[in-house]
């Protein structure tokens, strides 16, 4: 066992290099003579010592941390996005500290405070939605490089943003459904979720452009405490029980809503399929990782989470490094891609 | 807009309290006179200042951080467990910093280094599995309060651990399947996953106790790059294509494997159900959040993730506070609970 060293004072004694020199070594190795660097490195080999992440960064301008806030954890869309952010950040030599809002504006506000107090170099924030306290995002933005991710509040139109082009993606699947079968109804969410709402608007626009009458379902919460899957199952379950919508094409606000919709169909003995006119079809949005394993496998339009995560990290690094000014916000939207499977 | 204060020196000038007094206030408010505390608090109201999380903790014994390492993110079992850890930690007044290993031993090792360098007060670690570099866990354990979560390497039998009692949970569902229908075969995983292996062993023991011949499937990887769902789908898909196993009861190593198994059944026109003798039945383990929404809804045995998360936080806090010595490790296993649905 190597001797365990806890402080820089102890380290100075153990390897015979002065405390200020060690300090300079950990903050900026280039500022120390090559011979001394070699002596320190050889000394570090002989002991068990981990330099304190923050102590060695206290006098630097940067902590090397990107702070991330995501709205909830139990959602494979966000875990996939977070993974792509982490991989890109690691490649840029950064450490990622993620805080989750757990669907609660108070926790979201605390997450922002935590990132501020940790002096992270920049923040990537996927906001909760309408429930968010907007002043929290504005305060965070006023203090550090800040990029919105995945969804954006109406109140922050002029902020760096990376997400999906919902007009394109929702338009694409709406047009596909109209082209090969009946025009779809849109199974929405209660209007607190920015992305669901953007897709609802995009659906209406495309339907009108194609000369069809839009029809929106499920903007009211049907069950208490229900979220995406529960909502989709409740809205379609109630309709199917009354004999309605059983031969319709249904475009869902996202894949988790569609998973609930598929469940409602199965419970009423209905099999959504790619069949053309007059049969039940169900489609989603996002390409949730489980889509290919559902029965029937879910037809959807994929968000490019890899590109969104990479671009968000690339953008925040540009702002952190001062390569762009934060005053000219850039909005980057990635197109969605059709994933034709069995359900529509 | 309040004036923005960046350093404690600036703060001292702005609110007229000396730098050392401010320092004592942020590190231990009780050590400062009540009148001065009031003056500082009134001053802080007038400015925009966030004390640096780590600077104010540099001379304290604790950082107030629990570090967590999870093996991968794209799994709703781990996000549910992490949520329960975060909620319990917040209630204990702690900040949680989670690092994900992304299924890569090198990233797991780096995650451990990050937690050490951040001087977290204790670590909760859900290890990757057989692929992990065991010395990483041992080193982390030698440096700080350490509790293993969810699964444990054979090489670390005497370490604080909180997880599920797989002998009980797997025994319970094995016995249920035997009682109401044919004795099940076990759809395993390649033997690098500790929990899947513990369940395999528990299945064999219970089958033998009940006087039935155990039968293990799928211990070899059938497809490259496939993980849980892909593995379940591939193993059963290949068997069904050869006309094998179509009337069997299949207990899967976990629900994600079972999701793949359900998919293979659907693709071969088979409908697993609760029917008794001589029909296909598929069951899982964990109670993955999507189980009730699958078609058919998945019969499984639930892990008590809430209790596991709470107990892990409670245990690490006891060690951090010195209420128990780390020398008498405690193993806490929670029982599973049957969730009877449609698939078995």
TrEMBL record, chains A, B:
> In the record, what terms sit under GO molecular function?
DNA-binding transcription factor activity; transcription cis-regulatory region binding
- Specify whether Transmembrane is a keyword of the entry: no
SUPFAM superfamilies xref list: lambda repressor-like DNA-binding domains, Periplasmic binding protein-like I
Please list the residue ranges annotated as the HTH cro/C1-type domain: 7-50
- HTH lacI-type domain residues: 6-60
Keyword Transcription assigned: yes
Tell me the keywords, alphabetical order. Answer: DNA-binding, Transcription, Transcription regulation
**Entry protein name:** DNA-binding LacI/PurR family transcriptional regulator
**Where does this protein come from, organism-wise?**
Sulfitobacter guttiformis
Question: What taxonomic ancestry is recorded?
Answer: Bacteria, Pseudomonadati, Pseudomonadota, Alphaproteobacteria, Rhodobacterales
